[in-house]
Amino acid sequence: FVFTLILSFHNLLRNTTFLTDKDVIYMCPFNGPVKGRVYITNYRLYLRSVENDPVVILNVPLGVISRIEKMGGASSRGENSYGLDITCKDMRNLRFALKQEGHSRRDIFEVLTKYAFPHLFCILQLFFAFVNEEKFSENGWMVYNPMSEYRRQGLPNERWRVTFINEHYGLCDTYPSLLVVPYNATDDDLKKVAAFRSRNRIPVLSWIHPETQAVIMRCSQPLVGMSGKRNKDDERYLDIIREANGQISKLTIYDARPNVNAVANKATGGGYEGEDAYPNAELFFLDIHNIHVMRESLKKLKDIVYPNVEESHWLSSLESTHWLEHIKLVLTGAIQVADKVSSGRSSVLVHCSDGWDRTAQLTSLAMLMLDSYYRTIEGFEVLVQKEWISFGHKFASRIGHGDKNHADADRSPIFLQFIDCVWQMSKQFPTAFEFNEQFLITILDHLYSCRFGTFLYNSEFLREKEKVAEKTLSLWSLVNSEKSKYTNPFYSKEVNRALYPVASMRHLELWVNYYIRWNPRIRQQPNPVEQRYMELLALRDDYIRRLEELQITNNSKIPNSSASSTSPSQMVSQVQTHF
Amino acid sequence: MRLGVAALPRNSSFRCLPAQDERWEPPPPPRAGAMLGGGARAAKPSFVSYISPEEIHIKEPIEKEVNPHLLPGELLLCEASTVYKYMQEDGSNRGTYGKLVCTNFKISFLDDDSASDDNEPQFKNKIVGENDITLQCVDQIYGVYDEKKKLLTGQLRKYPEKLIIYCKDLRVFNFCLRYTKEEEVKRIVSGIVHHSQTPKLLKRLFLFSYASAAPNNTDGRNQTVMFETLEDWRDELERTKGNVKYKAVTTNEGYRVSEKLPLYFVVPMCISEENILKYDGRGIPIWCWSCHNGAALLKMSAFPKEQDDSTSQTQKAFLDGIYKTISKPPYELLKVDDLSSSLPSLQDIQTAYTRFKQLFLIDNSTDFWATDVKWFSLLESTNWLEIIRRVLKKAIEVAECLEIQHTNVVLIEESATDLCCVISSLVQVMMDSYSRTKSGFQSLIQKEWVIGGHCFLDRCNHLHKSEKEEAPVFLLLLNCVWQLVQQYPPAFEFTETYLTVLSDSLYVPIFSTFFFNSQHQRDTNKSGESLKTQSGPFRFLTVWDWSVQFDPKAQAFLNNPLYAEKPKPDKSQRKTTRFKHQRQLSLPLTQAKPSTKRGFFREETDHLIKNILGKRIGKFINCSDEPPNSLREFYESWHSKPVDYHGLLLPRIDGPEIKVWAQRYLRWIPEAQLHGGGTIATAAKILDLMEEVQSLQVKMDEERSQAVSGDVHSVPMLRNSARLSSLFPFALLQRQSVKPALPTSTWKDLEDEDDLVKRDDEFVDLSGDML
After folding, report:
1. Residue A578 lies in a domain
2. A126 domain-assigned
3. What cellular component GO annotations does this protein have (chain B) (predicted)?
4. Same domain, A490 and A533
5. Nearest chain B alpha carbon to A322
6. Range among A565-574, B40-49, B650-659 with highest mean pLDDT value
7. Are A72 and A83 in contact (CB under 8 A)?
C-alpha cells in the first residue's frame, strides 16, 4: 500500500529519491491533530492523513524550509509535546508530533536537515534542481537573450551602443556580460566611472522610450564618502547620458533611499550625487526603506495571518505591519520614474545603495508600466531575467537557498514585494496582463523550491561558473509548456499604453490568495467571473462552428433538419434572458 | 467653458479650520459676449480682467438664458448667476461659471456652456442630473468666510464667499460666489439652507406636488410584489410553503390593531384575533418567511419596559401564553433573539456611519493623500465595517437555527421595524434564491421594509424633524447585501450598480417608497383631502419602476451578466416554484476541534431575552443542548464545499473579506480613479462577448429561417471599454489628464524600528574599496 502511494508521487516528479517515511501526527492549526504518514524524498516532504475525510495532504518542497526545530524532549509530558517544528519561507509553519519512544524523530530530522540545507555539507548537488530530470516541451533558458531584447527596444542606435567590456565579468562581477552604454562613452571611460560607483556597478541602460528616447538607467551609489569626493569621469558620464536623448532637460536621479539613509551612507564611503558636482542633474529621494525593514514587515504580516487571521482590529493590525505602506512607496517611486521618462521626456538614473534591490524593483516596475511587452507571459519572464537575475539581485542571499542560517540579515523579501506590486497592478487593471494570479504564485513557489535553476546563485557570473543553464531546468520551461494554465482570459493586448496604478491605500489590498492561502476558511473559490467568461467563449466558438455548418447546408440548398435546431436555442436562453 | 487656474501651494491639513485650501481666487467670469463663441469676440474693446458682478448684469445681460429643467410640479424658488463651480485637483482648479438655482425639488447648477454637451453619458439619471442635488440629498452645507469653513444651518447673518455642499450620495460641490451679486447671494444661500436644512411638513415634500401634477403613467407590469393586498401575503405563504402553519389576517383593516402594522400580515394559525388586539400587536410573533424545512422566521415587537409591576406581570403572563401556544406542535422548537441586546444600537450605527462617510467626503487632492497614510486605522476607527460584520454574523446564526436545527426564530426589537428588517431581509437573501433576483429582492424590500413599517421618513430624517431618530438602517442592509454580491457575483440577478442607484433613490422624493414611516401614514396622506385636488387621491410612483429614472440602455447596467439563472421547469408560474436547497448540509464528521486562539464565534453564547421576557421563557429555548461550536462548524462546513449559487449562501466574514463598497463610496473621487481598470474592465469584456454571442444567434436564426430579423436585444454598448474609468458608470468628474495620481503625503515614522531603519542593506565599508 505504501509503495503504491510512493509510486504515485514518484510519477508526479521523476527522479526524486525516496529517503524516509514515518507515522506522525500533524498538528494542523485548522483541523486539529491529524494522524498521518510523512514521506520524505530528495525534493519534498509529503504528508497524507490516514483517518480524515477529506484527506489532509501536505506537499512541501524541501527548499521552502527555513528552519527545523526539535520540540520537547524524550521526557516531555503532555500529549503531542515531542516532535518537530518546521518554519517555511512561504508563510506557514508545520508542527509534527511523534512517538517519544526510541528517538523516533532522529532520522527524519537528519534527513530533512541534510536535504533542506545542503550548504551545511557544501554539496550543492543536493539542490534538487541539479538532479531534476523532468522533461518539458519548451526550453525556458531560451526565453531571454539580452541581445534580442535590446534589439526589440531598437538598440543599439546612434546614441547607444552595446559593450562587451564585462564579457568575463572583469569590470563588475555582479553585472551581466552584455551592457548598453552611451555611444559617446568609451570603454576606458567606463572603467574610470566604475571606480567611483559602489561595487563597480556603473550606470547602464535598462530601457529606452520608443518615442521620447528618454532612458531608464540603473547603477549603485557614488562613492562620495565623508569628505565629499568628486569624480570628473562620473560627472562627465552622467552628462553624456543626459544629452543622449537630445533633450536639454536635466537628468533626473531617483535615489530610492530615504534622505537620511543616503546621508548616513557617506560614513561608509557611499553617498549621493551632490548638487555642486552634478549641476545638470536633479536628485529626488523616494523614501523606500532597506531590506531589514522589509523583512521585519513581512514577519509582522505573518504574525497576523498565520495560522489564524487576526480577528479583532484586522485593519489596524494590517496597517501596523506597514507591508502595504511599503508596497505603496515602491509603486509610487516606480510611477514617478515612469512618468518622468514618458511625459517628462527626461532620462532618469535610478539607484539605491548597491543597485540590486530597490533599484531592481523600481526599474522593472517602471518598465512594466511603460512597455506592454513586459505584461505578456514571455515579456514578464524576460523582465525578471533581465532586471533581476542578470543584474545581480542576490537571490541566493535574499532567499537563503539551502542555507540553515534562518536569521541571516541578508535575507529579505524584496522579490516577493516586487511580485506583490505586480499583483496589485494586475488587480487594478484586470485586462492588461496576459498572465494570471497563478503565474505569479507559481513564480513565488519556485523562488523557494529549488526545483529549477532560475533563481539559484547571486549573479550571472556565478551561475555561469556553476553551469546552471546546462545542469538545471528553467522555471520558464514549466510555465511555457502549459501556458494556458497561466493565461488571463480577460487579457486584451494594448500596445504602447502606459499603465499607472493608483498607489493609494483605497486600492491596495492584501494579497489574500497568496499570504492567507493556507487557511481553509479564507480559501478562494475559483473566480466565477472568469468561469463565466470561459463559458461564453466556448459558447461563441460553438456558435461560430454551427453557423458555418448551417451556411454550408443552406448553400447546398438542403432543407433544414428540425432536429438540430432545438439545442442551440436552449443554450442561448441563458444568455438572452438578461436583456 | 473650462478654466484652469494654478493653485497656491497648499499645506496638507486634513479638513480642519482654518481651511487653507480656500485661499485661491477663481478666474474672473468671462464676458457674456465671449460666451457666444469666436464670432462675437470683439464686442467691447476695453476688456478688463476684473469685472464687478454689477457690470456683468447691467451692461451685458446674458443673451442666452439657461433655464433649469423642471419636473411637473417643480417650482423655481431662487437663483443666482455668475456662480463658479469648481473642483480642486492636481494642484489646480478646474471650474465653470453658471447659474445656481433652488427649486422645491432640487438645487441645480446650470453650466453657462451646457449647450456643448455633446457627449451624453452612457448611464444617465433622467430625474437627477450630474449637477442636481435633491433637497433630501443635501447632507451638510458649509460656508467659507475669510478662509474659514462654517457649518450653515438656520438663520444667517453674514453671507459666505464660497459654498460647499456635501451630499448624502457622497458628492461634494464647491461653489464660489465672489462674482455673484450680493442680493442674489443672500437669496440663494438662505434659500438653499432653508429648503434643505430646516424642518418641513410632510405635505411640503416634493412627492405631493409631483404626484398631483405629473401625468400618471405608472408601469403596471411591474413584477414586484407590493404586499398591499391580502392576496400578496397569501401568495407569499404559498410560495414558501408556510401556509400550513401560518395565516394571513385581516385584523388590522381600518388600522384597528395598530397604525404601525401593515394592513395585512401573517401570524401563526393558533394566534387569535383577540390576542392580536390585546396589546396593539405587541407580543405577537409576526411571520417573515418560512424555510424549506418548515422552520419559520418571525419578528415580534417587544413590550416597553414597565415600571408598574402588575402590568409587567400581566404582560409576562400574556407572553407565556403566546409562547406556549406556538411551542406546541406543529410549531415545536423556538429560539428567541433580542436584537436590541445582541446587535449594536441604532445610535451606534448612526455614529459609525457618520464617521465613515466623512472619510469619503474629500475636499481636494491634498485631503485625499493626507488621509491615505492612515487609511486602514481611520476605517477601523469608524467601526462601520465591524458593524457590517456583526450583522452578517447574526444573520448566519439565524440561518443556522433555521437550516440545521429546524428551529423557528423570533427576532425581537422594540418596534420590530429596524434591525429586525435588516436581519430578516439578510437571512432571506442568504437562504432564498428568489430574493436574489431583481423582482424578488424588490418584493423583499416591500415586504420587510416598506409595508413592514420601517420608518424611512424618520431614519433618513427627510423632514429634518429630529436628528435623534436618524440612523442609516436601510443603508446598512444594502452594505451587507453588497458584501454578498461581491463575494458571490453569479448568485445575484442585479449588480452592485443596482444597489448603488437604489441607495441614491433614498433621496429622490418623487417615489413614495422611501418617504413614509408606515403603510398607514402613506394611506392617510394619499387621499389628499387637505389639498385642493383635481383628480382624487394622489397616485404615487414606486421606485421599482426603474424606467422613471433610467432609459432601457442605462437599465441594462442594473442587470448582472454573470447571473447564472436558475433552471426552472415552468417559468411562467413563479408562485409554484419550489425552493429546495441543493447543498447537503450534513454536519462535519470531524471530532471536537481544539479551540484555536481567536475563533470569531468563540465568545458567542446565546444572548437571549434578558430584559424584556424574563427567565420563565428559558424553557422554550431549546438550543442549550447544542454544542457551542455548532455555528462555527456550520460555517466552516459550508465553506469547505463548492458554492451552489441557487442554494444557501453564507457570507465570509473574516477581517480581510469585509470590504469597502468602493463603487458607492469612491465614485466621485478623481484620485481614486483607475483609467481603463477596475472591475468594469472585465465586466465590459463579458458584455462585449455576450453581444457577439447574441449577434451570432441572430445570424443563426436568420440562416435557419432564411428571413431577416431586425430585432436585436439591447446590450449596453461599451466601446473602447479598455479605456473606461473604474468609476464607470458614475465617472462624471473624469480626470482630464492621463497623468498618474501621485501621493503627496509623506512617509510616517516607523517608530519602533529605528535601529533597523538606519541600517544599510548590507554593511560594508566602501571607503576601503576605493583604493
Report:
1. no
2. no
3. membrane; sarcomere; sarcoplasmic reticulum
4. no
5. B750
6. B650-659
7. yes
Q: Which of A315, A544, A579 sits opposite B715 (nearest CB)?
A: A579
pLDDT 10s digits, A543-575 = 999 888 888 887 776 554 444 444 444 443 343
Q: Is B700 in Cβ contact with A529 (below 8 Å)? A: no
A-B Cβ pairs (cutoff 8 Å, strict):
287
Q: Where are the alpha helices (DSSP H) in A185-290?
A: 187-195, 232-244, 259-264
Q: Assess whether A219 carries a catalytic annotation.
A: no
Q: What ipTM was estimated for this complex?
A: 0.89
Q: What is the rounded CA–CA span in Å between residue B271 and residue B265?
A: 12
- In the predicted model, what is the mean pLDDT of residues B310-315? 86
- Number of domains, chain A: 3
> Which of A260, A504, A566, A571 should one mutate to test binding to chain B, selecting the residue with the greatest count of B CBs within 10 A?
A504
Tell whether A300 and A157 lie within a shared domain: yes
Angle, helices B346-358/B473-487, rounded to nearest 10 degrees: 70
Residue in the block written with cell 466601446: B719
Angle between helical axes of A414-428 and A323-342 (0-180°, round to 10): 70
In a domain, residue A523? The reply is no
A522 lies in some domain: no
Measured from the Cβ of residue B62, the count of other Cβ atoms closer than 10 Å reads: 17
What is d(CA A297, CA A323) in angstroms, rounded to the nearest whole number? Answer: 6
What pLDDT does B620 receive? 40
Q: Are residues A484 and A550 in the same domain?
A: no
Please name the residues between 736 and 765 in chain B that touch chain A, using a CB distance below 8 Å.
Answer: 738-743, 746-747, 750, 753, 756-765
The predicted model scores a pTM of 0.88
H-type alpha helices, A313-467: 314-321, 323-342, 358-370, 377-383, 395, 414-428, 437-449, 460-465
| A16/chain B closest Cα distance in angstroms | 32
**Measured distance CA(A266)–CA(B542) in Å, rounded:** 72
Torsion angle (degrees, nearest 10) of CA A28, A33, A39, A43 = 10
**Domain membership of residue A228 as a residue range:** 140-515
CA B37 to chain centre: 42
Task: Tell whether A165 and A112 lie within a shared domain.
Answer: no
Last residue of a domain, one of A116, A131, A155: A116
Higher pLDDT, A31 or B351: B351
Determine the Cα–Cα distance for residues B22 and B682; give it in Å rounded to an integer. 40
Kindly report the number of other CB atoms within 10 A of residue B766's CB atom.
Answer: 24
B625 vs B299: CA distance, rounded Å: 24
Sign, CA dihedral B752-B753-B757-B758, equals positive
Q: Given this model, what pLDDT does residue B624 score?
A: 40
Q: How far apart are CA B708 and CA B691, in angstroms?
A: 18
Place of cell 534562518: A406
Cβ(A94)–Cβ(A86) below 8 Å: yes
| Alpha helices (runs of H) in A258-343, residue ranges in sequence order | 259-264, 291-305, 314-321, 323-342
A484 and A534 co-located in one domain:
no
Q: Is B655 helix (H, G, I), strand (E, B) or coil?
A: helix
Question: Of the candidates A100, A116, A132, which is a domain's last residue?
Answer: A116
Q: Is B590 on the interface with A (CB under 8 A)?
A: yes
Distance from CA of B66 to the nearest CA of A (A): 37
Same domain, A511 and A542: no
Half-sphere CA count of A321, side-chain side, radius 13 A: 20
Residue-level pLDDT at B593: 38
- Contacts (Cβ under 8 Å, ≥6 apart) of A102: none
Q: What are the tens digits of pLDDT across the range B194-217?
A: 999 999 999 999 999 998 887 766
Average pLDDT, stretch A278-289? 96
Angle (CA) A486-A487-A489 rounded to 5° is 145
Q: For residues A428 and A431, what is the distance between their CA atoms, to the nearest angstrom?
A: 9
- B488 φ/ψ angles, rounded to the nearest 5 degrees: -130, 70
Flag whether pLDDT at B54 surpasses 90.
no
